[in-house]
């Protein structure tokens, strides 16, 4: 989507979008815009309302914001207008930027408008959204120059659109190889290095926990490693490590799922957030070094699949007793985290995964679960999340929970066998593989990466994590 700044509507014909803060239902002063007057009886800027008016070849779409509005709500309103009112858009669309808007509000609005082009019907014949027409230019009606903010907003939405698509496409399309190719493509396009370890390379490296999970699938596992380094020299360059769960489908393995299996294409959403964040970080040319690993595999049912009670050997030499093959995410993450620490030694590590149903039971669909041993990054992650509406809430990592992963036969086991504190014991399992790293955080996003909202009839991707991770890295 291209944009162009204009300072008046002279010779304009088309649709003008006008965000309006709430005045008063009983106000006798009408909302005025370009000679139009809208009585408060029909519209006064109440949140989630809109009002269409026509005058001299211009369609005016007034958009109610309420008295105050946060980043996420504003972005959602803009997305809604773009997705649901596109039939009323003329060839030209202008966005009026209210005087009261700050740059974050401009960013949220423009990102939301672009996100509104997303269509879940990847395999249906659908008309292309007018904003995606290569000739289309969104006109920004303002006397101030917002071009830097607008460019950034477009980059954010573009990365989120990619993540939405990766998660929503079905598992017979999005295989581990598909993800590896995606990374290679985007690495070339946006400027980060990509190195993919296929089955043989993983065997040579000894990624035993990762390979155990992928054993039962026809689709070869792919261990994707991405490195972004800023082009220019940065004094005191910080180095962040990311790890994302890339299970392209989770049947549960031989401990086959009895409920909710149909949604398990979402089990690579943590990986997709890391992929989207890598695209965005490189696109924004952030002055930080980032090494990201997404272990991609399918947890399938087959004669070759790993068995409950198997003992497997992870990359860092830990023996793991498999209690439940459905607790597979922690296994691929364990190898991802160990590999990252041993070979790349990042200063900060964040992993993100649709890891447990327990995190959904605990926190529902409103925030992700945060686990960390480092109060500074806890605060920075929560602040980044709050500012963009991708919230996190911290849960404990106390050592009393360690008994949940103690095995009689091996160094650790992958599941306590008890239906309590599942998100915490999964986090304790991951912590075991961090080699006491001083700044590691784990985000369990099973409740927020994929869900219901006004934009479709069925559960679908949210792109949770793309903006959160990028903002966290930007603010380090
Ligand atoms: N992929 C699931 C977790 C999940 C649940 C993701 C709901 C998205 C929505 C994970 O691999 C899993 O199966 N977890 C089990 C672990 C259990 C067997 C220890 C769970 O949470 O039930
Ligand atoms: Mg599972
Ligand atoms: Zn899973």
CATH architecture of the largest domain: 3-Layer(aba) Sandwich
What is the helix content?
A: 25-40%
List of distinct ligands in this structure? ligand BES, magnesium ion, zinc ion
Q: According to CATH, what is the class of the largest domain?
A: Alpha Beta
Report the β-strand fraction as a percent range. Answer: 15-25%
Kindly state the mean pLDDT as a whole number?
A: 97
Shape: elongated
SS elements, strand count? 22
The structure class reads: alpha/beta
Remind me, CATH topology of the largest domain? Answer: Aminopeptidase
Q: What separation lies between the terminal Cα atoms?
A: 30 Å
Largest sheet: 9 strands, mixed
Poorly predicted ranges (pLDDT <50, ≥5 residues)?
none
Roughly how many Å is the radius of gyration?
24 Å
Tally of structural domains: 2
Number of helices: 12
Assign the CATH superfamily of the largest domain: Zn peptidases
InterPro entries: Leucine_aapep/pepB, Macro_dom-like, Peptidase_M17_C
Keywords: Aminopeptidase, Hydrolase, Manganese, Protease
Protein name: Leucyl aminopeptidase
GO biological process, one term: proteolysis
């Amino acid at each position: 989507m291209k944009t162009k700044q204009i300072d008046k509507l002279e010779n304009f014909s088309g649709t003008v979008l006008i965000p309006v803060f709430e005045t008063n239902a009983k106000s006798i002063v009408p909302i005025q815009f370009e000679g139009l007057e809208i009585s408060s009886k029909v519209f006064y800027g109440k949140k989630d309302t809109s009002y269409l008016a026509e005058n001299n070849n211009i369609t005016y779409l007034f958009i109610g914001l309420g008295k105050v509005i946060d980043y996420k709500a504003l972005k959602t309103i803009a997305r809604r207008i773009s997705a649901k009112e596109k039939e009323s858009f003329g060839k030209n669309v202008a966005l009026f930027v209210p005087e009261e808007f700050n740059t974050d509000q401009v960013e949220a609005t423009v990102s939301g408008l672009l996100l509104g082009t997303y269509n879940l019907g990847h395999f249906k014949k659908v008309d292309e959204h007018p904003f995606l027409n290569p000739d289309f230019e969104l006109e920004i009606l303002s006397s101030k120059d917002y071009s830097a903010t607008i460019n950034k907003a477009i980059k954010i939405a573009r990365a989120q659109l990619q993540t939405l698509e990766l998660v929503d496409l079905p598992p017979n399309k999005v295989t581990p190889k598909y993800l590896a190719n995606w990374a290679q493509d985007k690495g070339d396009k946006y400027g980060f290095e990509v190195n993919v370890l296929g089955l043989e390379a993983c065997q040579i490296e000894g990624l035993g926990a990762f390979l155990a999970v992928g054993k039962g699938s026809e689709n070869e596992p792919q261990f994707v490693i991405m490195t972004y380094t800023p082009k220019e020299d940065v004094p005191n360059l910080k180095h962040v490590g990311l790890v994302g769960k890339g299970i392209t489908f989770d049947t549960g393995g031989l401990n086959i799922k009895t409920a909710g299996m149909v949604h398990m294409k979402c089990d690579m959403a943590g990986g997709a957030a890391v992929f989207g964040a890598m695209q965005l970080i490189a696109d924004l040319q952030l002055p930080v070094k980032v090494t990201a690993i997404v272990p991609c595999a399918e947890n399938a049912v087959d004669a070759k699949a790993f068995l409950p009670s198997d003992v497997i050997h992870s990359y860092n030499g830990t023996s793991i007793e498999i209690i439940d093959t459905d607790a597979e995410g922690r296994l691929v993450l364990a190898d991802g985290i160990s590999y990252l620490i041993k070979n790349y030694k990042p200063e900060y590590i964040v992993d993100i995964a649709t890891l447990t149903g327990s995190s959904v039971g605990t926190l529902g669909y409103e925030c992700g679960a945060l686990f960390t041993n480092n109060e500074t990054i806890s605060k920075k992650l929560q602040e980044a999340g709050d500012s963009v509406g991708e919230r996190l809430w911290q849960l404990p990592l106390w050592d009393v929970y360690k008994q949940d992963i103690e095995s009689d036969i091996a160094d650790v086991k992958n599941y306590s066998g008890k239906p309590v504190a599942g998100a915490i014991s999964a986090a304790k399992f991951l912590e075991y593989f961090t080699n006491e790293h001083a700044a590691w955080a784990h985000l369990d996003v099973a409740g927020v990466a994929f869900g219901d909202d006004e934009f479709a009839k069925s559960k679908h991707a949210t792109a949770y994590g793309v903006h959160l991770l990028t903002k966290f890295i930007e603010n380090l």
